[in-house]
Amino acid sequence: MAKAAGDNAAAVEYRRLFESGRKWIDGNLFNGEYYVQKIRGFKKEEIAPSLRSSMGSDDTEKPQYQVGEGCLVDQLLGQYLADVAGLGLLVDPAHIQKALASLYRYNYKRSLADHDTVQRTFALNDESAMVICDYGKAERPRIPFPYFAEVMTGFEYSAAVLMLYHGMTQEGLECIGSIRARYDGEKRNPWDEAECGHHYARAMAAWSGVLALSGFHYDGRNGSVAALPRVNAANFRCFWSTGTGWGTFAVNGSSLRVQVLKGKLSCQSTEFRANGGRSFATLNGKPLGSKAAIHGGVAKVEFEGPVAVSEGGELTVDIRA
């Protein structure tokens, strides 16, 4: 953001903090399978008054209600947000893969018949779900955080979608399918995925599943449109939306079609999977100047100038031998 705003000095400092932080996290919080919490106590007078709270542990030197060495469903939440925004990797990619595999191995339960939850019951019996925290590989704190054994769809969606972003497509879809099976309209209301209360906002993380599976990403700074679906990649059609409009796109073989049904879309380049060849682009049937560069089976097509696709318009790009 600092670079986009032209504040290069701030960008350098933010990058330094990022590199230092990611190195420390990978070096200190990854246990070989997943990221953990290191519990550190402080005397109450050593904690800034603005950071003290009436909620949580009264004993700040040996705090209660912590995660500890458990496998937490939300341990990669920052990476999830970064992937949705197209910001790239935050920590070691090998660690990400191992942590996601651990979530699928430990937290995802194909049956809850033998699972104990000490508080609210959002899933039960033979239903499948991903629990908040699993202590199968580690000692549980004597008094852990209260909802560690619960199931909440917003957490499940974010972890499952992160699996989609990192090549675990079948596992991610299985976890999402378990949510939809629980909220099928017969057992529970599909429009009200309860958590702390009814119509809880965290369940809206479900929408990121559409972003991950469709592979549609728009960068408004340079007008780039990426359409790289993760399922049915050779013949795919889906909804898209940006801050200025929405419509549909279709990837079929070595061609891309982008329709604007409402608003507008400014486009300078497109990316989609295609074999080698030349690019042929049109806007509403009229030819556009373009050139293609193909790397690793992905075509990046640059237009001669910014293309403004207005409401009701269609942009097409074909790669031909």
What can you see in these coordinates?
By secondary structure, the chain is an alpha+beta fold. The chain has helices at residues 8-28, 77-85, 93-107, 153-165, 169-182, 207-214, and strands at residues 71-72, 108-109, 129-130, 133-134, 216-219, 224-227, 235-241, 245-252, 255-263, 265-273, 278-283, 286-288, 290-295, 298-309, 314-320. The chain has 2 domains: 31-211, no CATH class; 215-320, Golgi alpha-mannosidase II (Immunoglobulin-like, Sandwich). The chain has 6 helices and 15 strands. The strands form 4 sheets. A 6-stranded antiparallel β-sheet has the order 7-8-9-15-11-12, with no helix packed on it. A 5-stranded mixed β-sheet has the order 5-6-10-14-13. Helix 2 packs across helix 4 (153-165) and helix 4 runs parallel beside helix 6 (207-214). The mean pLDDT is 95.
Which structural traits does this protein have?
five-stranded mixed beta sheet, alpha+beta, globular, Immunoglobulin-like, 2 domains, 6 helices, single chain, 321 residues
The biggest beta sheet reads: 6 strands, antiparallel
Could you name the ranges where pLDDT drops below 50 across 5 or more consecutive residues? none
**Secondary-structure content class:** alpha+beta
Q: Given the structure, what is the number of helices? A: 6
- The domain count comes to 2
Helix content: 10-25%
Q: Which strands sit side by side, in order, in the main sheet?
A: 7-8-9-15-11-12
Overall average residue pLDDT? 95
Q: Report how far the terminal alpha carbons are from each other.
A: 39 Å
Strand percent estimate? 25-35%
Shape: globular
Order of SSEs: HEHHEEEHHHEEEEEEEEEEE
According to DSSP, the number of beta strands is 15
What oligomeric arrangement do these chains adopt?
single chain
For the CA atoms, what is the radius of gyration?
Answer: 23 Å
